[in-house]
Each structure stands twice: as structure tokens, then as C-alpha cells.
Write a structure and sequence with these properties.
- There is one protein chain.
- By secondary structure, the chain is an alpha+beta fold.
- The strands form three sheets. The protein has a five-stranded mixed beta sheet with strand order 6-5-4-8-9. The protein has a three-stranded antiparallel beta sheet with strand order 1-10-7. It has a two-stranded antiparallel sheet with strand order 2-3.
- It is built from six helices and ten strands, in the order E-E-E-H-E-H-H-E-H-E-H-E-E-E-H-E.
- About 45% of the residues are buried.
- The chain has a single domain, classed as 3-Layer(aba) Sandwich (Glutaredoxin).
- One of its GO terms (molecular function) is antioxidant activity.
Length: about 180
């Protein structure tokens, strides 16, 4: 398991379109997923300890951001042939267990992860209402274990700022996680 950190935010970069099957039986596109004030695109998976450590916070923050006009979508791009825990059936089970307040979709070809430049799970891309990148950082100080409950909510605060101003913070701390499991 390789730990990686995300690159610096490429402010203003346009979001890439996609059409991916969700665990809810729908096909999700960029336009369908976006909120009035923006969109948080998250690359996650089921097996990664970094993602497991923040599941409850992810659900809390995305639900709260939705009330501010920021929608979220979670994309699973790992090769499930290598990690059975990341299968579509297990994606459905995880989404149900945690009551995800966002679509959880499968990027089977890994083309979407490549288009976004995703490198790890979790990897967060926060866009404003014009779908221009404003945040590429961490959720909070959590690593393989959840950080203290009272830590700064980096992603939440950044996306709240995006909802209010259309601009993300200039100072951003990279996300850290397991490398995306690319197909052969």
C-alpha cells in the first residue's frame, strides 16, 4: 500500500464531464451532480484505511455542504479485480451502511480518475458554481486513524468559503491516502 499526497490546487481548472453508474441504479453526469454553488468530487474506495477513518466525517460534511448549495459525488476508480472489497456490490453495501448523502459511482475504465488527475483515496476536488477548481486538499488532520473530533474541518471550511465567495482558500494542505489501484 503506497501512501501519496495530492498535488497543489490548479485554481480555475475546469471539471471534466463523466457519465458513471451509481449504486442507486442511476447514471450520474457532472451536470446532474452539481449544486447551485458548486460540486465536491471525491475519489474514494471501500478498502482504504484513510477513507475508512473519515467515513462519518465525510457524511457529516457533505450533508452540511448540501444545505449551502454544494453537492458532492464519490467516485470509486480502483481495480476491483485486485481489491474485491472495492466491488460494485460492496460499494452498494458501504453506501447503505453509512447512508451516503451523495451519489457513489463506479469509474470502471479509470478514465475519469485520469481526467481529473486523481492520485489517491481520498482525493478531493472542490469546484465553484462555474465548475472551476477551488480546492484540492485534505478533509482534516485525519490519517489512517481519525483525528480528534475538534480539529479544523479543512475541506468543509474551504467549500463553505467557495459557496459564499466562489473562491477557495489560497493556503491548502494536501490530502493523503492510498494510491489509486490502476489496472495492469
Amino acid at each position: 500500500m503506497v501512501s501519496l499526497t495530492t498535488p497543489v490546487c490548479d485554481f480555475g481548472k475546469a471539471a471534466s464531464d463523466f457519465a458513471l453508474p451509481g449504486v442507486d441504479g442511476q447514471i450520474w453526469t457532472l451536470d446532474k451532480a452539481r449544486g447551485e454553488k458548486g460540486l465536491l468530487v471525491m475519489f474514494i474506495c471501500n478498502h482504504c484505511p484513510y477513507v475508512k477513518a473519515i467515513q462519518d466525517r465525510l457524511v457529516r460534511d457533505c450533508a452540511e455542504l448540501k444545505t449551502m448549495g454544494i453537492n458532492s459525488i464519490a467516485i470509486m476508480s480502483n481495480d476491483p479485480n485486485e481489491y474485491e472489497e472495492d466491488s460494485f456490490e460492496n460499494m452498494q453495501a458501504v453506501a447503505e451502511k453509512w447512508q451516503f448523502p451523495f451519489p457513489y459511482v463506479l469509474d470502471e475504465t479509470q478514465a475519469v480518475a485520469k481526467a481529473y488527475g486523481a492520485v489517491c483515496t481520498p482525493d478531493f476536488f472542490g469546484y465553484n458554481a462555474d465548475l472551476q477548481l477551488q480546492y484540492r486538499g485534505r478533509l482534516d488532520a485525519s490519517r489512517k486513524q481519525a483525528a480528534d473530533a475538534n480539529v479544523r474541518r479543512d475541506l468543509f471550511e474551504a467549500m463553505k468559503q467557495v459557496a459564499q465567495t466562489g473562491q477557495g482558500p489560497l493556503e491548502q494542505i494536501p490530502s493523503m491516502g492510498c494510491s489509486i489501484k490502476w489496472k495492469g
